[in-house]
């Protein structure tokens, strides 16, 4: 009998090679998605004068853009589930370009809302989600590093866009700048072209189960066990295996996995993050006004933000590297909770900062904490739900975060207006984040224990039960055929699994 | 130095927010003052305020003391130079007040301060007034009386042909009587008449301190420098703005260049991908070919063995 050909078993995620090109593409894509709305603020004064509107009407442009970028998350997820990352990102890039170019010819503020707010915002949403998703498909062992590097795109782009926007504005006015920015946003299509489709997520699920701590493994298996009864509920990256006669719910679940709401880890992450975002962005928005309020001149105040961005830039890849180390990776959720709490403590201590030096120190620590949280934002979600369901998870999480992200700065603003003092805003943000961090810490401790318990129970019941579940999870591939075979056939595969696990634990390459 | 304020102030309504010190200055009587003002302003009792400014000499060592005073309407003003107590031992000081080359007479003297009173009713009285204390050293201070400054825009406003440009001028703190806009034609400044050219220029006074000039249907000729002039009681003040009108081709060229770059990069990436896929397929085909050869040779070996066994038996 011929030995089983190596092509019978799909390889694990590359963890390198073309993956780094994908990281670069994600770097650009994520950078535009996060930095572009912030960079537009430079044009607002001129547009406000041109259309004769008030400042709050102009600020709506930014808010609509942000809301659309986060709110269109589920749509983005559905499209990625259906078509894969590459077409979605290319389409998103085209949409951004069209949006900004048409904004250059706008004659009213309402048209600006539509062109810049909705169209460009939607395009950026189609950029953000797939970029994060495809990293999960290309990386497993080095995923935290890849995530950290890709997320570093945001501060780098912000540092580039801010002076670029100013230069464009001085030379071309706001209309010409929008035209050129539209062309620049088309570079997202280049990033999309780099997102070469890789094999099904089934592949990454398999190796993931050998890789990620016993906890996550068993958690996933439990969930899949629940879904065994209705196989069509299993989210599949490529759903060519469509059976007829499905009802509405099952169909939706194929596109967007709502069963995630039964997933313990997902719920913990969701609640913790929604709470955190209440206090996440407000300090950045109000840092410069606060500095001016205590008497610092405009340029030094702007410089504080630059310090923040530079520290952020360095902190993200570094956090990725730390999170990838063998000590942190298995307990990455604790690291995440710690960074959130650290962020909160910075804000709580900010009112004690006196004078410019104090604020510089605060900016440095804030930049560090901000970078740490952002670098691990998606990594922890991937860690909890696994790469297969991450597509849907990220969509659901972003739309939930959308509300609190939008609420955060206005609440802070109201606090400042009511009390006439910035310190209450900082205290509120700090308290909310420390609370979120503590909540995540405790709940993840509980989660890890439950996962360990379930793993033990599974071991007691005996191993073979695992395998049919595992193969069910894989969807269609060779493994399905092998369910019919008996135990001994699977022995070499299990040994390989153990071997892989040892290899991963032993080689903590950074 | 008493801190009571005398009631020599002829203001109606609110006091202006000028700096007033609690100096008890006696004048020749309020009634006489009012009469004089009445005559000066042609019968209207204008809202005349009385303010005092004082500088302490010699001030920070090495630097000359200078004070900028902004006036937007008729004011009675008193400027005084006071000698610091540390230097009160200096006797025989000769103090002169000057405006340019003109010497101001009627200096009110006290032991340590010298002051002059001025009635600023029109533009001619504005300028720089200096007090000089001549003793062993010469100490001086300068008071600059000026109309409020108007801020224009340093950077040019960029707009496009066929588009509208909005230019804004603001006055900070002082309300002008009227605003006028000028455009520069060569070296001349021509006033812009928005009623005459209503489909080209629109002048709006948005609030008391802010004026808008809207230029519609921009053409290349609208390029240049514009002035917004605020008229106050005591004079006029100008702000400068620059307008740059570009054709749409100007930003279009960089945009198209960037689009071309994007298309080229995307093409390169896709071509590279196709090329590397072909290579992979090629190597896979080779591998399969090798395996088939291997199987064939194994089979033929097996056959040979079985036939050999057969023969042996």
Automatic annotation (TrEMBL), chain A:
The lineage of its organism: Eukaryota, Metazoa, Chordata, Craniata, Vertebrata. This is Major facilitator superfamily (MFS) profile domain-containing protein. It is found in: Basolateral cell membrane. Its main location: membrane. The chain crosses the membrane at residues 18-37, 58-79, 91-124, 145-164, 176-195, 266-287, 299-315, 335-354, 360-378, 390-412, 424-446. GO terms for cellular component: basolateral plasma membrane. It catalyses: 3-methyl-2-oxobutanoate(out) + H(+)(out) = 3-methyl-2-oxobutanoate(in) + H(+)(in); 4-methyl-2-oxopentanoate(out) + H(+)(out) = 4-methyl-2-oxopentanoate(in) + H(+)(in). One of its GO terms (molecular function) is monocarboxylic acid transmembrane transporter activity. It is a multi-pass membrane protein. PANTHER family: MAJOR FACILITATOR SUPERFAMILY (MFS) PROFILE DOMAIN-CONTAINING PROTEIN (PTHR11360:SF92), MONOCARBOXYLATE TRANSPORTER (PTHR11360). It comes from the Eukaryota. Residues 457-475, 491-504 have a biased composition (Basic and acidic residues). Keywords: Cell membrane, Membrane, Symport, Transmembrane, Transmembrane helix, Transport. Residues 457-510 are annotated as: Disordered. Residues 19-448 form the Major facilitator superfamily (MFS) profile domain. Belongs to the major facilitator superfamily. Monocarboxylate porter (TC 2.A.1.13) family.
UniProtKB/TrEMBL annotation, chain B:
InterPro entries: CD47_Vset, Ig-like_dom, Ig-like_dom_sf, Ig-like_fold, Ig_sub. SUPFAM superfamilies: Immunoglobulin. GO terms for molecular function: cell-cell adhesion mediator activity. Coiled coil: none annotated. It comes from the Eukaryota. The chain crosses the membrane at residues 254-272. PROSITE patterns: IG_LIKE. Residues 58-144, 148-247 form the Ig-like domain. Keywords: Immunoglobulin domain, Membrane, Transmembrane, Transmembrane helix. Residues 1-20, 289-313 are annotated as: Disordered. GO terms for biological process: axon guidance; dendrite self-avoidance; homophilic cell adhesion via plasma membrane adhesion molecules. Residues 1-12 have a biased composition (Low complexity). GO terms for cellular component: axon; plasma membrane. Residues 289-299 have a biased composition (Basic and acidic residues). The keyword Cell cycle does not apply. This is Embigin. Pfam families: Ig_3, V-set_CD47.
